[in-house]
Task: structure prediction
Amino acid sequence: MTLTTIFLQAAVNLPDAAAPHNTTIAETLLHQLATGWYIYVPQLFMSVLSVYIIIDRWIATKNALKGEANFLPRIKEYIYAGKIDMAKDLAKNMGTPEGSIIHKGLSRIGKPVNDIKKAIENVGKQETAKLEKNVIVLATIAGVAPVFGFLGTVFGVITIFKDIAEAGSLQISTVSEGLYLKMISSAVGLIVFMIAHIGYNLMISRINKVVNKMEAHAIEFLDILEEPTH
Result:
């Protein structure tokens, strides 16, 4: 006898099985959380962690994308005027990744351009690593969340057959607990997957914008340093 046949037979017997009760939806959900905690708790943790990382990285990239429109022109003006310390202070006070790489470049003025370029590249890698902090966790959650949903489905089916064996009947009340576990865990797993997957792609896109901005500022800064030699 297949599981589908069991559900159909239980549905046919529903009027006999549906005894009056006063159980509310809230009580049903609480009961499900209590009985299926080993599936729901990890899913809840992954969802909260995903939202936290997305918000945290959104704020970080938002701050990194800020900046003054005339930042490099002012740096150029200070360099040509020989006011390197003022240029360093301006870059440091920017509080952005491009400010950090320009500050490092300014601290290396007087050395070969290739040395300055390498120093800037190293700082750029460090700033990129800071922006990417915990982003890989989103990709991991996106991969694991559906697995937990499938695991809940498996445990739900096991619960259904166990309850049928214990009750010796095919009533809806017998299989309802396993069905709840099966369907809720699958739905939550897909929801967590969507949150983590969309968040991961969104954060990667914003980080790439910051990286492109850093690279553009680094190239422009190196051009400024080489201009007086022409």
About this structure: The chain is about 85% helix and 0% strand. Residues 68-132+216-229 form one domain. The mean pLDDT is 80.
